[in-house]
Amino acid sequence: MNHTSAAVAAAAAFVWLGMVLAISFLEAPLKFRAPGVTVPIGLGIGRLVFRALNAAEAVLAVVVIVAVATGSPAVAVVVLAAVAAAVLVVQLVLVRPPLNRRSDRVLAGEDPARTRSRAHLYYVALEAVKVLALLALGCVLQAV
Fold it and tell me: Whole-prediction pTM value?
């Protein structure tokens, strides 16, 4: 893989990684511990933040894919980039819609403790997979 394509892909992968770590594993759980933040307020904030995060992730995924595709990459680079992008697609297409429906119900007044959803657990598990893929991708690209 040529140096420029590898550098661009690595930078995008590490920025993407940092955003996911900061939002999903720091901001998201902490906002509910802030004084005065109710579940509906936290959900409203979370929806806005994750909508913005997912838009930024989509842009970064495109940058990674284009940089990888133009650089004659090793198989490991292609696989790791594909895993990160595929996880994002699964999150957006399969997991976010049930999460949005549940948050709609809570925002409409449903007691959040009344029903539990596994969609949140799937989202977090997929975030962990994405973090590992992005970390490995960035490290492999740095070695190029």
Answer: 0.94
